Amino acid sequence: MTGDRSAFPLPAHTIEGMSEITDATRDLYIDLLKRVIANTIYEDPAIPNPVFDRTEFNAWARSTGSDWPSVAHTMVGMARLENVRACLERVIADGVPGDFIETGVWRGGVCILARGVLKAHGVTDRTVWVADSFEGVPTAGDLSHPIDQRLNMHEHNEVLGVDEAAVRRNFERYDLLDDQVRFLPGWFNKTLPTAPIERLAVLRLDGDLYESTLDALNPLYPKLSVGGYVIIDDYLVPGCRAAVDEFRAEHGIDDPIERIDRWSVFWRRSR
């Protein structure tokens, strides 16, 4: 038997249909992409840490982003991945102009999903911005706010610090590294004020700390289109929540905050 497909020609209508992405096939692709990114398929064990002291895979923890996976490309969990998808699909459907950015990307999973959603919808005029120090969290001595100094997140930089080359390789594994993906390496207070971003439709913050949250909100929120979304991954963390609440109060933002899971929230900009 030959391996030449030309020996078994497909009907013309089947060939023509291959170039079209139906809603069903799009949903299947994005759903599978989420499952692979969070690795709910092979169920890798967790890395124990002061917040989540577990080593085994736990379906509830992986769904809610309540573990540090040893292999998966994200630690945000399935609920937050679905939120990213929903926000992106809403701005696409509503024609809200702008790009996607995540500040604090770890292994890159959320940004990989964002690029996959854009590709599945045939969107070619939006960029996924991947912003991270790629070194982990600043040390306590480099942080000025006491609430950040007490958190001591830098003690876990052997897990939290993922270099840019590793994140790029993760994009390549999904065949999603292209010219619609742009990297912004460095500390947020240095890179974000001068980043060549014109407009944003989805702004996702995952910097954990008071300072990193404000370092992202101050330069990026003015670039967020009306109708765009702000997603705060670490709203349960005291420093992050204080920064968000102060920023909203200072700028008169009264758009309702909606909860994603026990850790995270989002809101849609109305004006």
Short description:
The chain is of the alpha/beta class and 271 residues long.
Descriptive notes:
The protein is of the alpha/beta class. It has a single domain, classed as Vaccinia Virus protein VP39 (Rossmann fold), CATH 3.40.50.150. The chain contains 11 helices and 7 strands. It has helices at residues 12-17, 23-38, 59-64, 77-94, 109-120, 146-149, 157-160, 164-173, 188-191, 210-220, 238-250; strands spanning 99-103, 128-132, 181-185, 200-205, 224-232, 258-259, 265-268. It has a 7-stranded mixed sheet, sandwiched between helices. Helix 2 (23-38) packs antiparallel against helix 4, helix 4 (77-94) packs parallel to helix 5 and helix 10 runs parallel beside helix 11 (238-250). The longest helix has 18 residues, at 77-94. The radius of gyration is 20 Å and the shape is globular. 39% of the residues are buried.
Keywords:
271 residues, Rossmann fold, single chain, 7 strands, antibiotic biosynthesis, alpha/beta
Secondary-structure blueprint of this entry?
Elements: H1 12-17, H2 23-38, H3 59-64, H4 77-94, E1 99-103, H5 109-120, E2 128-132, H6 146-149, H7 157-160, H8 164-173, E3 181-185, H9 188-191, E4 200-205, H10 210-220, E5 224-232, H11 238-250, E6 258-259, E7 265-268
Parallel strand pairs: 1-2, 1-4, 2-3, 4-5
Antiparallel strand pairs: 5-7, 6-7
Helix pairs in contact: 2-4, 2-5, 4-5, 10-11
GO molecular function: metal ion binding; methyltransferase activity
Keywords: Antibiotic biosynthesis, Magnesium, Metal-binding, Methyltransferase, S-adenosyl-L-methionine, Transferase
InterPro entries: SAM-dependent_MTases_sf, TylF_MeTrfase
